[in-house]
Amino acid sequence: MIVVNDSGLSPKDTNNLAKKGINVLEVDKLEKDIKNNNVFNHQFLVIGSLPEEKYCALLPHRVFIKTDKEIKELYTESALSKARTSEDIIAQVWKWREDMLLEDYKNDEENIKLTIESRPKLIGSKKIQSIFSDHLYIIIEKCNSENECLKEWNKLPTSAFYYEALSSKGQNQLPPILDEYNRRIPFNKRYLSDLEETRNFLPRLKVAESFLSRIIIIDERIQEAMEEKVYKIPVKEHFKMKNIYIPEKVSNNLDLKAEQININSIFNYIDHIKKIGNNSIPFEFRKAYDFIVIHYSILERAYASLNEQEKDKNDRKAWVNLQLAEYKEYATVIVTSGRGNVDDLPDHVRFVNVSSITTALIEIQSKYLLHQILYSSRKQNKK
User: How far from 317 is each of 65, 192, 261, 320, 380, CA to CA, in Å?
Assistant: First the structure.
């Protein structure tokens, strides 16, 4: 965590907090570091006001704008070895995050139910709920054929905000929780019930944050995997229930492997997703926790597909950067590539290696892991 404040703390107090993962920086020090293109690989930033936009992608994704009084109250007692501990500080920041996550739903008649169920009722549920299922046993144990399994899958409650069938690898990605004897609890009914215990509110919030995020992915590798099956159910069906959106070749008329790519087709798909939402909540971009992820080679092919008159208006780099700016006010934009660094990306764009995305989605099949990867993304360091 980075806390930016002209605190007046002694070097000893500052060092004590740093040992606990809480780095208190003076404003001048932060400004100097970001102007040198230093990248901050922390989970949170607490600051009085945002730096210039061109520096934001160097900083943590979770940002809290607080008054000087609020910032000093966050850490001062801990620094002076009084009541507040580093755990108290981290807990307070996650509570701020919880308020931010639920802001969109606080006025709903039926708020999202932030619980996780291993054996949900498949029919007749009226609650907006999140559901994790152990290997989808609840469905595959009932059916002998793929058609039968798909029929059972289609009985999932239409009000379910989120449904994920977790493989063993996916279960291992979830944040660990401990029982009353500080022993790690495996993924089973006990894990799911204990996640609701007060002592486990931090891992519960981390899980809630992951399923509340909506992610649009424009990548040909992921698109190719959509027709594969997991637990006899097409991958594309799993994606839909996890609030992960990838265009389909036929129904969306968008083949991401094609040499000729029309950038307007991609924008039309994104706008289409914004309108339809999912089963229960409209998809309105929320920059604080929604993402658009696009493979850089698709943008290159889209530029190559332009007519010469269009190319004359901008060179490739300038044109690509214009496209990446299209949704920057609505979601966090992330570029992926398998070729390593992509030079001269716009200041607001973050970067992730494409292999991390495919590993999370295809090999491990974990939305939680994908979410952690995207939140760890930063602008590339030009140094």
Answer: 33, 48, 17, 5, 16
Return the residue matching tokens 């498949």: 122
CA distance 344 to 49: 26
pLDDT exceeds cutoff 60 at 81? no
In degrees and rounded to multiples of 5, residue 338 shows phi and psi of -100, 5
Q: Of the candidates 261, 241, 232, 240, which has an alpha carbon nearest to the alpha carbon of residue 249?
A: 261
Residue at token pair 């007046």: 8
Distance CA 353, CA 356 (A): 6
Range among 13-17, 18-22, 31-35, 256-260 rated most confident: 256-260
pLDDT score at 298? 96
Say how many Å lie between the first and final Cα of the chain, rounded: 23
In which order are the strands placed within the sheet that holds 44-47?
Answer: 23-25, 2-4, 44-47, 62-65
Q: What is the largest CA-CA distance in the chain?
A: 70
Tell me the C-alpha distance between 354 and 181, whole Å. Answer: 40
What's the pLDDT tens digit per position in 302-325? 999 999 988 888 899 999 999 999
DSSP 293-356: EEEHHHHHHHHHTS-HHHHHHS-HHHHHHHHHTTTTTTSEEEEEESSS--TT--TT-EEEEHHH
Q: State the Cα–Cα distance between residues 246 and 292, nearest whole angstrom.
A: 10
3-state secondary structure of 163: strand
